[in-house]
Amino acid sequence: MATPALLIEGLTKDYAVGFRRRPHRALDGLTLRIEPGEVFGFLGPNGAGKTTTLKLLMQLIYPTAGRAEILGRPIGDIGARRRLGYLAENPSFYDYLTAEEMLTYFAQLFGYQLPERRQRVSDLLDRVGIGQERRFQLRKLSKGMVQRFGIAQALVNDPEILFLDEPMSGLDPLGRRDVRALILELREQGRTIFFSSHILSDAEAVCGRVAVLAGGRLVAQGRLTDLREFSARGWELVVANLSPDALERVRPRTARVTPISAGRYGLELPPDSAPDAFLAELVAAGASIVSLNPLRETLEDFFVERVTRAASDARH
Ligand SMILES: Nc1ncnc2c1ncn2[C@@H]1O[C@H](COP(=O)(O)OP(=O)(O)OP(=O)(O)O)[C@@H](O)[C@H]1O
Ligand SMILES: [Mg+2]
To answer: In this structure, which CATH number among 3.40.309.10, 3.30.70.360, 3.40.50.300, 3.50.50.60 belongs to the domain 6-229?
Structure first.
């Protein structure tokens, strides 16, 4: 088998907390294997241990137990570090420098020489959508712009593997879309991307596989489509210009009808219904379709269910 891009074995972290420095287990025996070229979503609610894992991989903190390899080398190996990029959860930069100056500094650290360096900095800022703002001091950029800068920073050394801690946080819908597109572009180039998020739709848009962490433990992993917990549990349809007659005809096949305004309704369809035929019937009756969305369990539902089930299993 090819060398995995990332291999994590039994990684465990206890933080010492409080006056008595009691250990608090933030990560408990995490084992994962990620192949080269994968876009892997590392999901979990607040406090699940995502940032802890990424900090362990970057050796910003050290494990209580377990080990990991990046690009076939033990973490900390300088050769492997040159080939990775990292975006921290709350990155902070020298914020009296401009975006351009700061990125030039990072490029210098990686040994890029002029004129290539100037071109590289300019291309990266273009790529993440920082325009005129590149001449602003970083402290004058909005949160979303700083986040974009952070992504440019993570790409400065043309890394083979990227570790991104909540890359979409602080971004508006356009910014999220741009970051998704950028991740897909990086995947096309064959890079491996490991990113954390607590937003399922971000993972759905770009990930082949995901792992779900809760309370420091791995509770699920696999392809999103194979994780039964995330399959659609129905459809939510919004229609306009729906006549009362047509509504009565379809009502028995819906799970719920919510009036929104005159002629406009939210219809919930059960998972086994074929939405195509249903939509065609509505359109034939003169209604117009506003939207159709799969109803899914959110990550939050998933956690509530898993965590309560784990707790009740423990009691029995
Ligand atoms: N330096 C620290 N000292 C003590 N406990 C910590 C420390 N850092 C994190 N923790 C605890 O470890 C657990 C995991 O935190 P972590 O930051 O890894 O979660 P996360 O999954 O990144 O959450 P979020 O989605 O909020 O970023 C939490 O209970 C947190 O309070
Ligand atoms: Mg975090």
So the answer is: 3.40.50.300
